[in-house]
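Session log. Operator J.P. requested a structure for one protein chain; no other inputs attached. Running the standard single-chain path with token output.
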Amino acid sequence: MDIQRLASFTQDGQGGNPAGVVICGILPDADTMQAVAAEVGYSETVFAAPVQGGFRARYFAPEAEVPFCGHATIALGAALGAARGAGRYTLMLNEARISVTAYQEGEAWGAKLVSPATSYNMCDQSVIDEVLALFGWSEDVLDPHYPVSFVHGGAQHLAVGLADQKTLQTMSYDFDTGAAMMQAHELVTINLFWVESATRIHSRNPFAGHGVYEDPATGAAAAALAGYLRDVHEHDNPYEVVQGVDMGQPSLLRVTPQSGEGAPIEVAGMVRHITA
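Structure written below.
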């Protein structure tokens, strides 16, 4: 089995989020894919095989399958571009049909995904209290402009807006407690974010529910958040998400909301091969 190791959403050829990519003639069985993902050890490994109309794709974290993963989709797009040429590829996921477009900038490959449809639900005070207890925060660290909400763009996340960058930079939590909370609410990540400006957002994504303390670049969470910001706060302009800086893996995601409530989100970024 040929396992490519790629990092997506790199910044100036550095950082990014590692993903395993397996392109094969027929998808292995789920137990085999899960075992490979656990051995690779990245936050996700994507498996893809050609089918009529495009590629069937499935995503596995070290401990469980997830319905959609942005950075692994970007990595897959770049791998398909390198193997088959630049252009648009249709992906059939477990619960949606999306696309990824591969492109080249100089010698480097990048990709742009179009997410599944987006949605959101405001959460009740009990969930907010769980979040504050998990991170050891008081309610005054939250940005009142962005009520804590469940957001969805192919997978469910919890969007938590913070009032200042220092709170984001010093984030820490108990892994087992976080895993239990995320699993109880069927969350892929908790998306902690701070809005610097209309064109720049900073983010961190705890991912304990699927076996990873923190994700350095999370395309699915960026898409889900963008749908919420567009539909609730009329933030419909393109912007950048800066992530992974506090982990030493600086990452840059370029986000463009499509028009219309619940519409998909475009998320783009560059990719590099992991050599060690």
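Operator note: The mean pLDDT is 96.
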